[in-house]
Amino acid sequence: MKRLRIDPIACDGRGLCAELFPERITLDEWGYAIIDQTPIPASLERHAAKAVEACPLLALSLDSLAAREGRARGPKSRR
Amino acid sequence: MILAAGNAKELWYLTRGTGVVALLLLTASVLLGVTATLGLRLHRWPRFAVAGMHRNLTLLSIAFVAVHVVTTVADGYAPIRLTDAVVPFVSAYRPVWLGLGAVAFDLLLAIVVTSLLRVRIGVRRWRTVHWLAYACWPVALVHGLGSGSDPRTSWLAAVAVGSVAVVVIAVVARVGLAAGPTRARAAGIGVAIVVPVVVLGWYRSGPLAPGWAQRAGTPPSLLPRVAAPAAVLTTAKPPRAFSSRVRGSVSQQADASGLVTVHLRLRLHDAPHGALRVDLRGLPSGGGVSLTASGVSFVPATTAAVYEGHVTGLEGNTLAADVVDAAGDHLRLTLVVSIDSSTNAVVGNVSAEVPARSEQD
Amino acid sequence: MSSTRLLAGVSGGLSPALANHDALFGPLQANDDLIAAVDRAGLRGRGGAAFPTATKLSAVAGAGGRPIVVANAVEGEPVSGKDRALLRVAPHLVLDGMVAAGRAVGAREGIVALSRAARRERAVVEEAIAQRGGRDGATRLRTATVPDRFVAGEETALVNALSRRDAMPSLKPPFPSEQGVDGAPTLVSNAETLAHVALIARYGPGWFRDAGRPDAPGTAMVTLGGAVSRPGVYEIELGTRLVDVVARAGNPTKAVQGVLVGGLFGRWVSPEAAAGLELTPDVLGAGAIVVLPTDACAVAECARVLSYLAGESAGQCGPCVHGLRAIADVMHESRTADRGARLEELAAQVIRRGACRHPDGAVGFLSSALDVLAEDFALHARRGTCGRSDGRVLAVPSRSRR
C-alpha cells in the first residue's frame, strides 16, 4: 500500500490536491495541505496519483510503505 | 488577394479564421495561467478544473494552429512550405513575420511537452520553460498582425487591442500582487507596459500603414497593385461579338424650345458587363423622338477602354449605334429595350458585332 | 568532582593553551575502533536531539565518498551559552574530538561552525588550530561562520550555509550523514558531543560510564539562567536532580513559578516536579535551564518568546510562518483574555507540519507553559492582568534580529 508524502517547503497552499483527494488531504486555515498518513488502499490510488500530478509545485509524492524511511526524527531539533 | 482558383478563397478564410481563434484561445489560456497564483476563483469552479481548462485551452489552440498551418500550406497562393511552420525566418513569404509564427509555435510545443512531462523533469526545469509563455504570446500576436493579409480589418484590430489589454491587466495584477523584491516587480510591471506599447506602436506604423504588404516581404508576384484591374485588363482583348441583357433607367426632359432629351442609363447583366449610356435629342414625333442629335458611350468591365459614338438608327424599341474606342476598335451595337413609363425602368438586350473594316468610318 | 571533565581546565584556572591541554588530558592516540567505544559508552548528542552518537558515526563512515566533520557551535538559542563557553575554555577538546571522529569516519576536513557574532570564540579557536601545527596529520581544520539566526544551527540549515546556500533547513531525508556539505557525507555533531568523544578516545567507555546513570551515562554542560544567584555554564553528571543542579548555581533567589528545562524548545516544569526531576539527555535537550520566579509575568515572558520564535521562522513552510505568527498574536491577547482553546487549535495545525522541528519546538514550549504556568494565564483571563510585568527573565529579544 502507498502513502502520501508532502514537501512542506514546496507547498504553497494552492489547494488543488484537497479538491482531488479529500480522503487523505484537507487544508488548514491558511490553505496549506494537511496530509493524513493512513495508508492508501489500491482502490484510491488513482485519486492519489491525480492529486500528486495536479500540484503546481509538485509538493506531493506517493511512497510505498516498504520504501526506506530513513532514521526516525528525534523529538527535538539537532543543533 | 482574391485570386487564383476557386477554393483558394475558402482556404484563405480558414487560415485566417483558425489563426485568430488559436490566438484567442491562447489569450484565454494565458489569462488563466497568469491569474492561477492569485488564487482567484472562477465562478466557484474547483481549482483543478481551472488548471485543466488552462491546459485544454492550450491544447485546443495547438489543434487550431495545426489546421492553420495545413491550410496555409495547401493554399497555393503564397509560397509557404510545411517546414516554415517550425523553422523560422526561411520562408519566401514575409520571412520575418511568418517566421515569428514558427517561433511562437516552437515555444508552444516546448511549453506543452515540458508540461506533460512535468513529474519527470521537476518543477524548476518545468517552470523555466513555462515562463517562455510570456514571450510566446506576444510573438504569436505580432505574427498574426504582421503576416495577415488584411490587418486593417476593424474587428481584427479590435481583437488585437482587446487581447493586449486583458493580458496586460492580468500580468500587472499578477506581478503587483506577488511577493518578492520590489525592484524586480517594478521591472516586471514596466516590461508588461512597455512591450504592448511598442507592439501597438509597431502595429500602427507597420501593418496599419499603407504599403505594408510590400514592406513585410510579400513576394512581388503576389502584391496587389492599385490599378489591379488595369494590370489584368491591358492584356485582355477588346470585346468582339456579344449579347447581354441590360437593365437601367430612363429620364426625359423637355426644354423651352420643345426639344426633348432622353437619357438611357443601362448596365449589362452579362459578359462583358459594363455600362451603356445613350443620350437622344430631338423633337417628339408619334410616341418617340425624331432625332436631331445623339451620343452613346459604352464602357465594358473587361477593358479600360471607353467606346463612344452615336446612334445610327432608331425604330420603335430598337436602336442601333456605332461606337469606337481610343485604340480604334469598332463595335456596332444593337439595343432593344422596353420601358415601363410609370417607373421609368428599362430592361432589354444589347448585342454587338465588329463591323467589317470596309464599314468602319 | 567526577562531574568536572570537560571543564577540568577551568577549575585549575588554566588558559586554553595547547600545552595546558596536553598536560591536563594527555595525548590523543590513534584509536582503532572509536565507533565501538562510543557505542559502548552510550554517548548521545548534546545538541538537543540526544541522538546516539555511535549511530551517526556509523552512518557517515558507511556512506562512502570523502566525509567531512562539522562541529556545531552555532548555538542560535539565546538562553544557551554552553558551546561557546566550551570553545573559550577547552577548544582543543573539541578539536581533538573532531580529529578522532574524523579518523573513524574517513574524513580529512573538519569545520568548526560558529555564528557571525561569536567573534571572540572564533579568535580562540583559530588560535588553537594554529597552535596544533602538524599534529593532526592529514586532517585540515578550519572555522566557518553562519548568519546569526535561530534556525542556522539546525543541521540541514548549517550544511546549506556551509555549502554557500541560504542558511535554511531542508527536508530530511536525505540526512547530512548521506548528503551534506557540497554533497559529501557529513558528520554534524554538537561541539560538546565531540569534546566527550575526545575523552572517550583517551580513557575509554568504562571511564565515561563512571559518571551519570546506567541509562544516562556521562556528564553534560548546562546553562543556568533566571532567578539564581550564580547564573552561568556548569558541567553536571547526567541523572542529577534538577533541584540539585539549581542549588549549585546558588539556589533560586526568589520563590519559583516554574523552570524551563531544555531551552526554548524544552518544557516547563513546575516547582514540585522540579524537586524529583532527574536530568537525562531527553529532558535536557541543549542544556539550557531558566528559573522563573513568582514575581515574573509568565504570560508576558512566554508571549515575548513566541513572538521571537515566530520571527525566527525560516519562512519556508506555510503552517510555520502563519501558525507561529498567529500563536504569537493570540499569546499577546492572552494578557487580557482566555485564549487557551484558540491556542490549542493553532498548535494542532502547526505540529509536525514543517520541514524542520522549529514549529514543533515552539508548540512544545507553549503547551507546557499553558499547563505548568496555568495560574498566571488564569489570572490574566479573569482580571486582565497578574499585577506583574515582563521582567525579561528569559533573555530572549522581543523581535528577531532580522
Structural class of chain B: alpha+beta
The Cα radius of gyration of chain C reads: 21 Å
| Broad shape of chain C | globular
| Adjacency order of strands in the biggest sheet of chain B | 1-2-3-4-5-6-7-8
Largest interface pair: A-C, 22 and 45 residues
Q: State the helix count of chain C.
A: 17
Salient structural properties:
heterotrimer; B: 361 residues; alpha+beta; eight-stranded antiparallel barrel; disordered N terminus; C: alpha/beta; 11 strands
Q: How would you characterize the overall build of this protein?
A:
Helix content of chain A is 19%, strand content 20%. Chain A is α+β, with helices and mostly antiparallel strands and 79 residues long. In chain A, the strands form 2 sheets. Chain A has a two-stranded antiparallel sheet with strand order 1-4. A two-stranded antiparallel ribbon of chain A has the order 2-3. In chain A, a hairpin with a 5-residue loop joins strand 2 and strand 3. Chain A starts with a strand and ends in a 15-residue tail after the last strand. Chain B is an alpha+beta fold and 361 residues long. Helices cover 45% and strands 23% of the residues of chain B. Chain B is built from 10 helices and 8 strands. In chain B, strand 7 and strand 8 form a beta hairpin. The N terminus of chain B is likely disordered. Chain C has 402 residues and is of the alpha/beta class. Helix content of chain C is 44%, strand content 14%. In chain C, a hairpin with a 5-residue loop joins strand 9 and strand 10. In chain C, helix 14 packs parallel to helix 16. The longest helix of chain C is centred in the middle third of the chain and has 19 residues. The chains are: A alpha+beta (79), B alpha+beta (361), C alpha/beta (402). Chains in contact: A-B, A-C. Chains A and C meet through loops of A and helix 14 and helix 16 of C.
Describe the protein's topology:
The complex is a heterotrimer of chains A (79), B (361) and C (402).
Chain A: E1 2-6, H1 16-20, E2 25-27, E3 33-35, H2 45-54, E4 60-64
Antiparallel strand pairs in A: 1-4, 2-3
Chain B: H1 8-36, H2 47-74, H3 95-116, H4 118-121, H5 123-130, H6 133-147, H7 154-177, H8 182-205, H9 212-215, H10 228-233, E1 242-254, E2 260-268, E3 274-285, E4 288-300, E5 307-315, E6 318-324, E7 330-340, E8 345-353
Antiparallel strand pairs in B: 1-2, 1-8, 2-3, 3-4, 4-5, 5-6, 6-7, 7-8
Helix pairs in contact in B: 1-2, 1-6, 1-7, 2-3, 3-5, 3-6, 7-8
Chain C: H1 8-11, H2 18-25, H3 34-41, H4 53-61, E1 68-72, H5 82-89, H6 91-105, E2 109-115, H7 119-132, E3 140-146, H8 155-162, E4 186-190, H9 191-209, E5 212-213, E6 216-217, E7 219-226, E8 232-237, H10 242-248, E9 256-261, E10 267-269, H11 271-276, H12 281-284, E11 288-293, H13 298-311, H14 318-333, H15 340-350, H16 358-372, H17 374-383
Parallel strand pairs in C: 1-2, 1-4, 2-3, 7-11
Antiparallel strand pairs in C: 5-6, 7-8, 9-10, 9-11
Helix pairs in contact in C: 3-4, 3-9, 5-7, 6-9, 13-14, 13-16, 14-15, 14-16, 15-16
